[in-house]
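Forum: Protein Structure Q&A
Topic: Joint prediction for protein chains with partners

I've read a bunch of threads here and the consensus seems to be that you should model interacting components together rather than docking separate models afterwards. I'd like to see that in practice. Below is the full input, 868 residues plus whatever partners are listed. Could one of the regulars post the assembled result?
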Amino acid sequence: MAVIAHVFLTRLKLGWHIQAVGGSRRSAHNAGISVRRTVCLTYVISGALTACAGVLYAARLNAAGSDTGAGLEVSALTAAVLAGVSLGGGRGSVVKGMLGGVVELIIQSSLVQLGLRSGAGAFVLGLVLLAAVAIDVRWLKNRLKVLSRVYVSPAYFALPAAPTTEPGSPFALNERLANVEVIGLAQVERPEDIIVDRNGHLYCGNRYGDVVRYFGPDHKKWEIFAHIGGGPLGLAFDRDDNLVVCVSGIGLYMVRPDREVVKLTDETNRSGFSIIDDSRMRFADDIDIAPDGRVFFSEATLRFDITEWAVGALEARGNGRILCYDPRNKSTRTIISNLQFANRICVTYDGESILFAETWDCRVQRYWFAGPKAGKREVVIDNLPGYPDNINRASDGNYWLAPVGMRSPAFDLAWRMPDLRQRMVNCIPHDEWLYPNMNTGCVFKFGETGRIVDCLWDRHGTNHPMNTSMREDRGHLYIGGTYSNRIGKWRIPGADPSWGGSNPIWGRK
Amino acid sequence: MIAAVRRALDALRGEGDHSVTVPPMDWALNPNNALEEAPVVASAEAPDNLCLFGNRLLFATGAEIRAIEGEAGPALMSLDAAVTSLAAEGGALAVALASGKIVIRGGAHDGAEFASLAGRPLGCVTALAFDGPDSLLICVGSETHPLQRWKHDLMQLGCSGSVWRADLRTGALASLAQKLGFPFGVPPVRGGASVAESWRHRLVLLRDGRPPEPVLFDLPAYPARLSRAADGGAWLALFAPRRQLTEFILREPRYRECMMAEIAPEYWVRPTLAPMASFLQPFAGRHTQEAGGHQTLAPSRSYGMVAKLDAEWQPVASFHSRADGSRHGVMCALERQGRLYAASQGARAVVAIDFAREA
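Posted by a regular:
Agreed with the consensus. Here's the joint model:
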């Protein structure tokens, strides 16, 4: 009976409806559940179950009377409350109910054993009921507070000292990014990634869940190209000029040239030993498309949403992953997991591997998905002075890399002290936490071997206090930032003015 | 006994001295932009120690003493070490030097020198004040560190400051108070001195033979030098804000030790005198520039603030330069002819506020 009830409540449609209506009538109504019908059915089921119980009780007593079982409702109520089953509905399970019943039986038997006078037993039971309700209310009220206190769980993480940015080093500071042409100043909010199509139009996401299009070649006029919702992050064009978008909070989407929004995937395979269900995508981040049409994309972290993405740095735990969506059979698989903020992805020129950035690990790795080295992984750049974000191809065969922020010795030291970070998270408010520095705009260029070839800085952060992306197109570098209100356009000295327009590894110029 | 029990309870519950909360800037300390918008009257590398010498307003920068009016002109006086504090009375000028000396120039005691205070070093004289022509009040911030290492003193929870009275005729020294948490000050009051205890975020009155009497406490920033106002009150410069992150680090001995051993002082988690200049400096969550600008409410490590205190030492008005500004690190403010001069180390400038109009 209990097993049937359990399956009914947790696996069947009507059970889900009952839980949903109990949790919130309005939400259930908005979700299309017939609230009246469900409530009516609950009474029917409840009555039927009571009838069954009555029959069993009468069989046990060998007599049926109209007043048999009077007063049992208090016991039933106590059992339910003791089990942590919400009287309002929507919270509870069959197993909890059974445990509550057992506890209640033990209490009642103990009261009988104590030999309390008639009436006193019911009184004690009532007191237990009141206490349980009081605890339940307090717990419900403060549950989120307790959860938020214990949610961030820092781990030990040590990096070697960061490389210097003094003159003479490959990361030497300069002001080369200070003079950029600005696109969409105060029109665009949070252009996290940008892409230019073959006609020279520029696309970026914004914080309202839109994909915005700036018309080329001057990028002054703009329109909302499509609305997806969520937080549109990484962008890529496929062979048919569909714009594939990673949307944090939702999954992987595609916008056709006629603006139709199509969901590609929001689910991957559940990993074998995970206690929580990690099949849903929480934070799809960046994307690139291989020559065979497979879509490689990253999920930055399984534990935080986009509004608190940087809190992951305080944990320093690897829970990001790289996923692959295959449009041929519409399947999604996790190919690499346990990465520290798996951020940006870029298919290399040979079309056989991807480069991906691990932001809080301060490194870039390469993964071969095809060719003789398929399945192998290799660290390309280690111990960067900043937290790598976007990686994109450059016209000269190298790769651009935008660090979202720079490392500071004080934060590196805190990484070695998980207990300190735990106390900090508990003691002081979010705004004051020691954080990775994110007010420095800079773009590196590196070769396939990981050698740093070039470095551009905007030290004073007038236009680019923080870069999360850059894209080279027709001799210019377009720069976006997650907290920015503009897109920068920088002429690359000596760059090929004919190179660009979506994906050059497909042989398209 | 009760105090000890209370301290033990506070430690258990994380309250009182054991809490990392910081008092808000409200009422008279409500933030504004008066300091940020004030006109510059002099520029220098590290202006500090404003001092009225006859009709002239002097300030010290490094090893030089200059006059406000002669901004571009040569130094009035060059010394052999950095000036840590300055006081004037009549024609006499008392100058404390980072090399550990106090010298008197001009006046009846011209040429007098102190090289130590009862055997203690003099490298950290935070303030000097004449109490009449023959008596000099000397405020020593720390016995263990010279003035430019004040951050080391803060991070080691220093409380080795002291205040002395020197008789310039006989050279006799009398101690007014010991074991203060980095005192600044130090205008004389009847029978003693008023002192800002920086590491304890409070103002105390020191009177001969009596324990320090706190008159203003729980300040939201680290107080620095005090000067008298024309209306009987005082001007208090506050050189850096208290932040919960700093308060937290001050309660974390292991982190502090590692930080001091491994990291250069400019990159420590600590209050600073100038706005953030390098990405190697620590960063708090709210610092992130959004939509192209800094946020005024960011928990910056530096801040600019001068408070006007009434005759009872309570704040009645204040002038600020907030997290998005640059007039930070004001160690000294002085009133002259209805204008308030403030020396900001963060902006490397002396600014003047027409305070009657601002208020």
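The interface with chain B takes residues 186, 189, 310, 405-411, 413-414, 416-417, 420, 423-424, 427-440, 461, 463, 465-466, 483-486 of chain A (CB under 8 Å).
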